[in-house]
Write a structure and sequence with these properties.
two-stranded antiparallel ribbon; 4-stranded antiparallel beta sheet; 2 domains; alpha+beta; 35% helix; 8 strands; 4Fe4S_Fe-S-bd; 227 residues
């Protein structure tokens, strides 16, 4: 089984993706695997920084320009190919009905949410993502997970709650409509072209910060999804 994990890691790495931990399901909350039987194990698939971007752009050049949610589609296809090769079922955070990806991620890697809701990683900061998961009907032996340091606990200033000009994020939560109106408005160009100012203000994981064009892509997706 360890050799299989290494081969999965290699297949994902060819597309800028990576394994993000995993765990065994108790019988009570297991989704179904490839054959329809309950899954016994899960491996989370994601990214650190913008590693998949060039792979995604190369794929995107071959697709119709009007394709909806291209990054989700690329992720599904890429992870689905790996799943088929290794006898797993691929699932995505955007699948409906929605699966508990954030809970799975916290369970797999021991992470906690930042004040922005994004899980804080001790190495990547806020600059990482989960693109899908592989569900196996066999139990996979995984290394014991160590609890991650939650960097937000040591951050006194909380610049992530002070940089947005409309205070979209606060300790009370995310003011979705306020954020959306600002990004769409005349003063929202810095957000549209360079990403969320609160997220960019976080001092951790800056070596993995998404380039401006990647952040602009995600911000455009955020605005489009609300239309």
């Amino acid at each position: 089984m360890r050799g299989m994990i290494e081969r999965i890691t290699s297949a994902l790495d060819a597309n800028g993706l990576m394994l993000r931990g995993g765990f065994a399901f108790p019988d009570s909350d297991a989704p179904h695997g490839a054959s329809g039987a309950p899954a016994r194990s899960i491996l989370l698939v994601g990214q650190a920084g913008a590693a998949p971007w060039r792979h995604f752009l190369r794929w995107r050049e071959q697709q119709p320009q009007a394709i909806a949610n291209p990054l989700d589609t690329w992720s599904r296809e890429t992870i689905g190919t790996v799943a088929e090769k290794f006898g797993a079922r691929a699932v995505s955070p955007s699948d409906k009905p929605y699966l508990p990806f954030q809970q799975w991620a916290m369970r797999a890697e021991g992470l906690k949410p930042s004040p922005l809701g994004i899980l804080m990683h001790p190495q990547y900061g806020l600059w990482h993502a989960y693109r899908g998961a592989l569900l196996f009907e066999d139990e996979i032996e995984l290394s014991e997970r160590a609890d991650a340091i939650h960097l937000c606990d040591a951050c006194v200033e909380k610049p992530c709650l002070k940089s947005c000009p409309v205070d979209a994020y606060s300790r009370e939560g995310f003011a979705y409509q306020t954020c959306l109106a600002h990004v769409r408005g005349g003063n929202g160009e810095p957000c549209r072209s360079g990403g969320c100012l609160d997220r960019n203000a976080c001092p951790y994981g800056t070596a993995y910060r998404y380039p401006p064009e990647v952040q602009a892509f995600h911000m455009a997706s955020f605005v489009r999804a609300a239309s």
